[in-house]
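anyone seen this seq b4? input:
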Amino acid sequence: MSSPAPQPEITTWLAENGPKKLELLLQAIIHHPSAPILITDDERHYKDASSGAGKLLGLPREAIIGKTLDDFVAPELKPQISQLWQAFLQQGKQAGTLQLVGADGIPRQVEYTVKGNVLPVRHLLVLKDEATRGKIPAWVQDYALFLLTREGNIASWYSGAERVYGYTAEEAIGKPVSLLYPADDTLAGKLDEELRRSAKEGHFGDERWCMKKDGTRFWANIITMGLKDENGELQGYARAVRDFSERHERDEKLRNKLKGPQLVLPATPEIVGIVSGEFDRIPEVNDAFLELVGYSRQDLAGDRMRWPDLSPPEYLAVDEVAHEEALRFGACTPYDKELIRKDGTRVAVRVATAVLQLSPFRWISFIRDLSAPAVERPLEEESAEVTQPFEEIVGRSSAVKRVLGQVEVVAPTSATVLILGETGTGKELVARAIHRMSPRRDRPFITLNCAAIPTGLLESELFGYERGAFTGALSQKIGRFERADKGTLFLDEVGDIPLELQPKLLRALQEKAFERLGGTKTIPIDVRLVAATNRNLTQMMADKLFRSDLYYRLKVFPITTSPLRDHPEDIPVLARHFMRKYAVEMGKTIDMIPEDTMQALVSWPWPGNVRELENFIERSVILSRGPQLRAPLTEIRSDIGPPVRSRTLGQVEREHIILVLGESGGVISEAASRLGMPRTTLNAMMRKLGVSRKDI
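predicted toks r here
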């Protein structure tokens, strides 16, 4: 049963394109599971298939799509299939057993469940070979798929959502999405944050308690995708929800098997296998990976190497957990497993996978060979001069471990890394850790904040200039690229590079050479580039402010740093770390944070992230006179702060501008962007309100 006609608040674009986007989201979710899952239409034609379906039927995903259920049954059983299907279309769901014949011609007795209209004219068929132990997992038997308006109201509600939540379309459409959650004083803010991040980052994943119509709760896996039109304008959201109640505890145990960083430095430049995929296909790999698994380029071109075929069955569960983690967070925590080589032997590897694009689904994996430990040296065996790679990154949460694990896998390569995250989340610290764990660690680490350099000077800062290149160029200048030769160049706020300068940067990355401003000599370079930004580069591409070819050249391996509010369990350890750091610097002895202070710290959302927390703790150390930290809690507890009505409009504007400037690291252009005004307007307001850099 599909939803009624669109409500007035639904845009025409959302009504026409929303179901198609939801289907693409469903494809990204179902392609990986080992359970055989098929999406069919009313005529039993397969529209999509999971890797598990490919294994059961003996065909790759593309070969299954377009076929019908009848193609996999014996001729004498086709009338029975037709009767069963007609009964299903009338009832909306069905379960039973079938005899299917795969590509090998061997009949198999399979159990099946089929649920109708998870999307309009899209039905969910889940199979299980009777020879396989256990039952069909509950979390693959149904999917709640629905659309939300820009305001967060339910716009379309399909049959899967009715079955999962218990609400009919008439009861759900037009209601705020908060209808689906247990009552919570902080719920509205959390849901607004989810939608904001889905719009900014493209998609956002979460797991939390949801509530059905009858009042029962279930542990839900939620993927929300921001939907934008061809002009980059937000039109609404697509959301997929699955009941993970049965697998929640199992996943937590399996996540403990996902390997954290081992803090090892490569003794020599390390060759890492790199695999780029689309669903279960592998269109691109490097030679190191082919050598690792024993396949040839001819095998790749002939489609004789598929990602699901490389994984032994005992690793399927942990592979699925890693896939779910990549869907939620953009990348998974690196983990150890084995791959099956062409000759049937196995090789031990460490895998880190990042999602490059959710719709249609594209991914990249970095594979480290663990069978040759001689290429690594444990840190404790290094000389005393070697700096601990992660010494500046403090935290014990899964969010921090995931980032550190990704750094460990990608650092030994020469791959370009794009670090994404809000201001104050430690992007430069991640870049430094990549450099310290790479073979280039004894070479220069050169940084450049692209937002802090005036537009007209950025080209000369990057590439240098020759004497006489322009008025005032009295001598030759060596640029950052040249200074970083054989080392690492970190470009912070890469989204602020002007559009006219982006082609020259792209050429330098692709050709590994450039010319100084005013020069004619081509200078070769060997530079590992790490870039970072807190801006939405996808939106900037839609707005024609950032080149798509440069974006994809930078996003070889993306790492996303989580905002502090996503891992508040790290706040106590961070607070103590900063307290000790500044107490030593100021010659004070402070060894305790009062319980009420710590509770206030953990409760505050920290919009400026770790940087804001560090600045707050530094101020607290300054104010402290004894062994206990004395924190100015009025700054972070609105319940004891001065009422807003006692301040003038000018005071409120001044405080807000100072707050945003602090969160933006004092970068005027970034603060202006966050405030939604031109840079010149912000400068004028700062002069009018008496805001200077010393206030930040």
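Residues 1-8, 263-269, 374-387, 639-646 have pLDDT under 50 and may be disordered. The CA atoms of residues 565 and 605 lie 5 Å apart. kinda curious what u guys think
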